[in-house]
Design brief:
mainly alpha, 76% helix, rod-shaped, Transposase, 117 residues, 3 helices
């Protein structure tokens, strides 16, 4: 149990915990200075390790569910942004058409005024 506590507190004396965020049977056995099979003589230790595994599994499932919700939200926002961009493109094309029409009209008026004189 003290080996588990040291691993949780990140004060391991024998096991390398820097690269692994979870606690395994091998790590506990190494930290306790025993073989992994010796752990099976201590059911309380095994039960405590199982509770850590269950907690880690449920937190991973919660994270996955949260990420899926975020992906769905981002897909919806992307669709909305595409719709807005399409509407703006249509407005821009209509403005270009109106501008070209006004330019042609102004040119005709200028030419008509020039031919009157």
């Amino acid at each position: 149990m003290m080996a588990i506590d040291r691993l949780l507190a990140r004060h391991a004396q024998k096991a390398n915990t820097s690269d692994t965020p979870r606690i395994s049977k091998s790590m506990v056995a190494r930290e306790a200075g025993h073989s992994r099979t010796t752990l099976y003589k201590y059911p309380k230790v095994l039960e405590r390790l199982k509770s850590f595994e269950a907690t880690a599994k449920s937190s991973k499932q919660n994270e996955i569910m949260s990420l899926r919700q975020e992906i769905a939200k981002l897909k919806q926002e992307t669709g909305t942004a595409r719709d807005l961009m399409a509407a703006m493109l249509l407005q821009m094309r209509e403005m270009e058409r109106q501008t070209a029409s006004r330019i042609r009209q102004a040119v005709r008026m200028t030419q008509a005024e020039g031919s009157d004189t």
